[in-house]
Design a protein that fits this description.
single chain; alpha+beta; five-stranded antiparallel β-sheet; three-stranded antiparallel β-sheet; 46% helix
Length: 263
């Protein structure tokens, strides 16, 4: 599981979650959008109170489609409301995240990152149009962001038309922490921000996730991704201001300090 101090400082305090632990089991993870609990083979993704209820329903639909596409991801069971939070219920995936492996054993960093990139490169071969267009999703996030000034929103949205577009399946938060492996079997989790668009934008979000984590993995990731896909660093990093700006308002103050210079 991700270090709890780091989770609280980067994504905000979890607070008193006794009721959720009693209903859904042990807390096994946390992120910007939700806290994860598990019991008896079922994982409960409890969305934070700043997330709209539709987020859980969108992710449930997304995971059903992802399963139909044959991409390794947990099976979804349903959505419910508990204690004024929206909760997504799904298979509990066995294994350890590749990010945890990399943090605990630095000798395995290169091998794990190769697996991350291999899975993402395969995902970026999938042409698909039934999810939200990536540019539209980013524009929406920027438009309603609570942390950006009107001038910043106008500037960032104004960058979007000049950026490339595509109809490739993009995970939206693809990094080692969202890949759980048990032996040679790996599952991709956290499909809340899936879209269809330019794969370089998806890779840029991955780069930024590693950059925020401050584990020194962002350049290794980008070098390996570019080597595996033939894309250049410039193709990926040209998206950085828009990608950083689109998530800025939803991060904790500490994470915002890290992201702010990127846009």
């Amino acid at each position: 599981m991700t270090d709890q101090t780091n989770v609280n400082s980067l994504f905000g305090e979890i607070g008193d979650d006794k009721a959720f632990r009693e209903r859904y089991g042990e807390q096994i993870g946390a992120g910007m959008a939700a806290v994860i609990y598990a019991r008896d083979g079922v994982a409960a993704k409890v969305f934070r109170d700043n997330q709209p209820p539709r987020q859980a329903f969108q992710e449930a639909y997304t995971m059903a489609v992802i399963n139909e596409l044959g991409i390794p991801a947990p099976k979804v069971y349903g959505v419910e409301t508990f204690s004024n939070r929206t909760v997504l219920l799904m298979d509990l995936v066995k294994g350890i995240s590749l990010l945890d492996v990399m943090i605990k054993d630095r000798s395995k960093v290169a091998e794990c990152m190769d697996t991350v990139v291999k899975l993402q490169a395969a995902l970026h071969q999938v042409k698909f149009t039934d999810f939200r267009p990536l540019k539209m999703m980013q524009q929406g996030m920027i438009t309603v962001s609570p942390g950006l000034s009107p001038e910043e929103k106008e500037r960032l949205i104004g960058m979007l038309p000049s950026l490339p577009d595509d109809t490739i399946l993009c995970h939206g938060d693809f990094h080692g922490g969202n890949i759980l492996c048990d032996g040679d079997s790996c599952m991709i989790i956290d499909w809340a921000e899936v879209s269809c668009g330019c794969p370089a934008a998806d890779a840029c979000r991955s780069y930024m996730d590693y950059y925020i984590a401050r584990q020194g993995l962002e350049d290794l990731y980008l070098d390996k991704y570019c080597a595996a896909t033939g894309r250049t660093r410039d193709e990926v990093l040209t998206w950085l201001p828009v990608v950083a700006g689109s998530v800025y308002g939803y991060l904790s103050p500490e994470a915002q300090k890290i992201v702010r210079p990127l846009f």
